[in-house]
């Protein structure tokens, strides 16, 4: 089954790329924005039918490799 | 004195480091990332470069490569491990030194000489060094050192800050901070001070024709301290 993981920067961590994107959007006329934060999205096809087991495996992946927990949070979503 | 330099796919300062170590008397071996065992070493160096194309996060893939388990065991048993630039990024990803290296504050790749001030000489790397301010070279896109408030308190309490970005006179101020690093931190130790990670490249300053000799001072002193 497919499981997705979204990795986002923690609140206190500076995101210079997000800031530049915000400025660009602002310049394009999207003025109603208070903040942009950039993150990562993973789609992982796990050979496992039990959704809880599949999510547990992806959680382990997030902790060990996909996210750096000093600066990032992760969120796991069952997609299929 | 025996040293080992680990080559990862995408390392590009491994040969420079080999030249530098040999110049100052180390019997250096190059070690491939896919090997299981480190040769007998007094010093292990993780060199600069772009291991695994900086995929995911700089240093993250290299930190999981085969040889790293052996490097981690060596470091945990008190062995000297030095990570330069991408090597520093690999060290933070292994957790051997605290914190992370973020994208430079102004989103530019920085390539220039900088001055760094030593904070702590109670360690094998800087003991007996007769200078407090060294001129080194930096070349990186992700050198913006960051750690949590709790980690910062801990590394200060344990004297783990190795070097700060400063000016020629040793002033540590915002304007001499090239990449936005927290507290101008350019390099950091583990608690025990046997593991050192730093963004500047001492191996690029070992010849007058390579814009400076402060790297020579560093390596000469280092081998004397290990002997």
Give your account of this protein's structure.
The complex is a heterodimer of chains A (80) and B (227). By secondary structure, chain A is an alpha+beta fold. Chain A is 35% helix and 26% strand. Chain A has a three-stranded antiparallel beta sheet, covered by helices on one side. The mean pLDDT of chain A is 93. Chain B has one domain: Class I glutamine amidotransferase (GATase) domain (Rossmann fold). Chain B is built from five helices and eleven strands; from the N terminus they run βαββαβαββββαβββα. Chain B has helices at residues 14-23, 66-76, 86-94, 149-157, 214-226, and strands at 2-7, 27-32, 43-46, 80-84, 100-102, 110-118, 133-140, 144-146, 161-166, 185-189, 195-198. Chain B is globular, with a radius of gyration of 16 Å. Chain A binds chain B through residues 12-14, 16-17, 20, 65-66, 68, 70-71, and chain B through 56-57, 60, 64, 93, 98-100, 102-107, 144, 146-148, 151, 180.
Instruction: Tell me the domain tally of chain A.
Output: 1
Total number of β-strand segments of chain A? 3
Question: Over all CA atoms, what is the radius of gyration of chain B?
Answer: 16 Å
The CATH superfamily of chain A bears the name Phosphoribosylformylglycinamidine synthase subunit PurS
Q: In which range does the helix fraction of chain A lie? A: 25-40%
**What global shape of chain A is seen?**
elongated
CATH superfamily of chain B: Class I glutamine amidotransferase (GATase) domain
Q: Would you identify the CATH architecture of chain B?
A: 3-Layer(aba) Sandwich
Sequence of secondary-structure elements of chain B? EHEEHEHEEEEHEEEH
Name the poorly predicted regions of chain A: none
- What sort of overall outline of chain B do the alpha carbons produce when their principal axes are compared? globular
How many angstroms does the end-to-end distance of chain A come to?
A: 6 Å
Number of strands of chain B: 11
CATH topology of chain A: Mth169, Chain: A
The CATH class of chain A, by name, is Alpha Beta
Considering residues with a beta carbon less than 8 A from a beta carbon on another chain, report the largest interface and each chain's count: A-B, 11 and 20 residues
| Percent strand of chain B | 25-35%
- End-to-end CA span of chain B: 7 Å
Biggest sheet of chain A, in brief? 3 strands, antiparallel
């Amino acid at each position: 089954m497919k499981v997705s993981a979204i990795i986002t920067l923690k609140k206190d961590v500076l995101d210079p790329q997000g800031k530049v994107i915000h400025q660009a959007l602002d310049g394009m006329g999207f003025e109603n924005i208070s903040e942009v934060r950039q993150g990562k999205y993973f789609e992982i096809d796990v050979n496992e039918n039990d959704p809880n087991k599949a999510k547990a495996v992806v959680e382990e992946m997030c902790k060990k490799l996909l996210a750096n927990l000093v600066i990032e949070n992760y969120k796991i979503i069952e997609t299929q | 004195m025996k040293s080992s330099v680990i080559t990862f796919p995408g390392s590009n300062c491994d040969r420079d480091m080999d030249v530098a170590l040999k110049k100052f008397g180390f019997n250096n071996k190059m070690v491939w990332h896919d090997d299981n065992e480190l040769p007998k070493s007094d010093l292990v160096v993780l060199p600069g470069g772009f291991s695994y194309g900086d995929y995911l996060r700089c240093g993250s893939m290299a930190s999981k490569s085969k040889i790293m388990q052996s490097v981690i065991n060596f470091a945990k048993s008190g062995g000297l491990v030095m990570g330069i630039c991408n090597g520093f990024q690999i060290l933070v990803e292994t957790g051997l030194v605290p914190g992370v290296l973020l994208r430079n504050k102004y989103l530019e790749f920085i390539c220039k000489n900088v001055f760094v001030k030593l904070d702590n000489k109670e360690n094998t790397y800087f003991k007996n060094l007769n200078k407090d301010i060294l001129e080194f070279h930096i070349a990186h896109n992700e050198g913006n050192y960051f750690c949590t408030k709790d980690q910062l308190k801990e590394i200060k309490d344990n004297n783990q800050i190795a070097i700060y970005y400063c000016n020629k006179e040793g002033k540590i101020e915002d304007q001499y901070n090239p990449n936005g690093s927290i507290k101008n931190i350019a390099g950091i130790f583990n608690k025990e001070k046997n593991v050192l990670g730093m963004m500047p490249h001492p191996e690029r300053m070992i010849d007058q024709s390579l814009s400076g000799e402060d790297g020579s001072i560093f390596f000469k002193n280092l081998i004397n301290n290990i002997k």
